[in-house]
């Protein structure tokens, strides 16, 4: 099978390598001349056999929109576009309708695995028609980890379902990371804890909180025990916000995910007006001491 891949960044570059290792022929395009296989999207489309399959792995939003627009003008009826980025599920429905006007098929696929996907494989959540998903199974099988397909790949439902599942996955990820981070801070604050990295290492096997995220946490502490080189500003990619918005829209309580998202917002404040007011109120009603401004 021969597939096109647009976007050879941190994820796409490794995905191209894993696909090739799995026996899939890949023609990749990226604006970076050091990693691209062809000079343009037009050249990529021309290099593919018909019916073509093109996997889009670029940042969500305007960049994905522009790539989908471009492919809509280059591909033929019966060709297939896969959006493997972190697009919002509502955008999938818009892109599918846009391409359907030219009889171009569309699949959305949530991809999890980060920069470790080349070595470990990727967890995949696909949305689209049964026929389109089945036509891409060789690609999905090359990308996912070894073992039973059902352990790392799911056809979630129709168009949009794959990215919806990935959105919720990332929302859960927010909550898990925040819990580990809060546990880390609590342990670091207590002087009776003399081996902080060792404490987390002891949790890696046999405990109920063991996970890959915990393994990565141990790795981070081994590389920088005090995290001295890292600022406390935490970005968010948007999917945590979308998860909270969907929780509100569906009246589903999601306090842990919501709190984790708000914690990221709080990390970006050089000075927190809200925390200042909490301190002022504690002083007003209880006479609690307030620390002077820096």
From TrEMBL:
GO terms of biological process kind: D-gluconate metabolic process; pentose-phosphate shunt
Family the entry assigns: Belongs to the 6-phosphogluconate dehydrogenase family.
Residue ranges of every copy of the 6-phosphogluconate dehydrogenase C-terminal domain listed in the record: 162-289
Keywords: Gluconate utilization, Oxidoreductase
Pfam families the UniProt entry points to: 6PGD (PF00393), NAD_binding_2 (PF03446)
Molecular function per GO: NADP binding; phosphogluconate dehydrogenase (decarboxylating) activity
SMART domains: 6PGD (SM01350)
SUPFAM superfamilies: 6-phosphogluconate dehydrogenase C-terminal domain-like (SSF48179), NAD(P)-binding Rossmann-fold domains (SSF51735)
InterPro entries: 6-PGluconate_DH-like_C_sf, 6DGDH_YqeC, 6PGD_dom2, 6PGDH_C, 6PGDH_NADP-bd, 6PGdom_BS, NAD(P)-bd_dom_sf, Pgluconate_DH
Annotated organism of origin: Psychromicrobium silvestre
EC number(s) recorded for this UniProt protein: 1.1.1.343, 1.1.1.44
Classification via PROSITE patterns: 6PGD
Protein name per its UniProtKB record: 6-phosphogluconate dehydrogenase
């Amino acid at each position: 099978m021969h597939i096109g891949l647009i976007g050879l960044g941190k994820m796409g570059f490794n995905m191209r390598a894993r696909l090739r290792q799995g026996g899939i022929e890949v023609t990749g395009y990226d604006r970076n001349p050091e990693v691209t296989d062809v000079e343009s999207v037009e050249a990529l489309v021309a290099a593919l056999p018909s019916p073509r399959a093109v996997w889009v792995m670029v940042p969500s939003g305007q960049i994905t929109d522009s790539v989908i627009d471009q492919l809509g003008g280059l591909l033929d009826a019966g060709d297939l576009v896969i959006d493997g980025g972190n697009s919002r599920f509502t955008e999938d429905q818009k892109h599918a309708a846009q391409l359907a006007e030219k009889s171009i098929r569309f699949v959305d696929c949530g991809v999890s695995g980060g920069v470790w996907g080349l070595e470990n494989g990727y967890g995949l959540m696909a949305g689209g028609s049964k026929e389109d998903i089945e036509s891409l199974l060789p690609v999905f099988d090359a990308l996912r980890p070894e073992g039973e397909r059902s352990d790392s790949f799911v056809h979630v439902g129709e168009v949009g379902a794959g990215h919806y599942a990935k959105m919720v996955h990332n929302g859960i990820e927010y909550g898990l990371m925040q819990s580990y981070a809060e546990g880390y801070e609590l342990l670091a604050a207590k002087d009776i804890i003399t081996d902080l990295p060792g404490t987390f290492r002891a949790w890696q096997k046999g405990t109920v909180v063991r996970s890959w995220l915990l393994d990565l946490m141990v790795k981070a502490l081994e590389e920088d025990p005090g995290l001295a080189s890292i600022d406390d500003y935490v970005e968010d990619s948007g999917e945590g916000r979308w998860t909270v918005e969907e929780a509100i829209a569906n009246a589903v309580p999601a306090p842990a995910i919501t709190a984790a998202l708000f914690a990221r917002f709080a990390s970006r404040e050089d000075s927190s007006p809200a925390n200042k007011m909490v301190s002022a109120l504690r002083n007003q009603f209880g006479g609690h001491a307030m620390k002077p401004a820096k």
